[in-house]
Amino acid sequence: MKILKAVVMAVIVSGFLFSLASAGGKMKGDAEKGRALFNDPKAFGGSVSCSSCHPDGKGLEKSGMKDKKEWTNPVGTFKSLEEAINACITAANKGQAIDVKSQEMMDMVAYIKSLGMKMEKEMKQEIPMEMKEKKSGY
Asked: Is residue 45 part of a domain?
């Protein structure tokens, strides 16, 4: 019986470790939760919501594009989206910066990236068919 318990425990621990490894041990952001935070004037201890300046995320579409390397807003230029988000939270919203590794930040990033993915999809659809069919090279 002790051997059976040990084997069961080993399988459970192995499964847990495997799930952590396959997830990379990282939290994932939830775009819907990020959207809720984005629209909440009380989020982060501020006085206005992000949507006060960016209704429906307007103006942030390029911020969420996947190849973006630098983010600029009225506060300055930043090397990460997380830094740019915190700059807006503290300067425009008069709130408290959030930990860049927190679940709230992951959710905010997921929401803003969802805006970028939507824009990239729309841009691909706007390319004329004859350009899509052209082969590269001249």
From this structure: yes
The band of 68, judged by pLDDT with boundaries at 50, 70 and 90, is confident
The tokens 């805006």 sit on which residue? 115
**DSSP states of 65-131:** -TT---EEETTEEESSHHHHHHHHHHHTS------TTSHHHHHHHHHHHHHHHHHHHHHHHHS-HHH
Pairwise CA distance, residues 58 & 35, whole Å: 13
CATH code, 116: 1.10.760.10
Q: pTM (2 decimals)?
A: 0.67
- pLDDT, one tens digit per residue, over 38-57 is 999 999 999 999 999 999 99
Beta-bridge partner residues of 73: 76
